[in-house]
Write a structure and sequence with these properties.
Radius of gyration: 16 Å
Structural class: mainly alpha
Strand content: 5-15%
Oligomer: single chain
Shape: elongated
Number of strands: 3
Helix content: 25-40%
Order of helices and strands: HHEEEHHH
Number of helices: 5
Largest sheet: 3 strands, antiparallel
Length: 145
């Protein structure tokens, strides 16, 4: 995914394609734009909308309030969501405890992952990227390296 991110950073950051305009990249299933209550047991979060694969249940939120069709990132499988939550818990504790700014945290993580800082966003990571980020963030002093 890293090569694709570097090559297509412009479209990711400005005009990413809505996920319901193509099949799911994981299973080929149909992706729909739907209330996120369907993935959160009847509760809505944020602006209340998401993209969801009707087959494998990969999903992605959307920007805006009110909601737009612009995706927040790549579709994430349930396993990817687990890693995103794990990464955010470790990552967010550093900037929330004023050890580094949030921007400095992203720059440091990008350096340790070997990617450009503009590409360092959990919402754009694929499974291997999330696993690498999680391994890096598991070292409690990752932000000092």
């Amino acid at each position: 995914m890293r090569d694709w991110l570097v090559m297509d950073l412009e479209s990711l950051t400005k005009e990413p394609m809505p996920w319901d305009e193509s099949p799911c990249p994981y299973c080929g299933g149909r992706v729909i734009n739907v209330s996120n209550a369907v993935i959160y047991n009847g509760h809505t979060f944020g602006n209340g909308r998401c993209y969801l694969c009707v087959n494998c249940r990969a999903s992605c939120g959307v920007h805006g309030n009110p909601a737009t069709r612009r995706p927040l990132g790549v579709l994430a499988t349930p396993e990817m969501k687990f890693f995103k939550q794990s990464c955010h818990k470790k990552f967010d504790s550093v900037w929330r405890n004023n050890k580094l700014s949030r921007n400095q945290c992203y720059k440091q993580l990008a350096k340790l992952m070997g990617i450009c800082p503009k590409c360092c966003h959990f919402g754009w990571f694929n499974q291997p990227d999330l696993e690498l980020a999680n391994a890096i963030l598991s070292d409690e002093s990752w932000y000092k390296r």
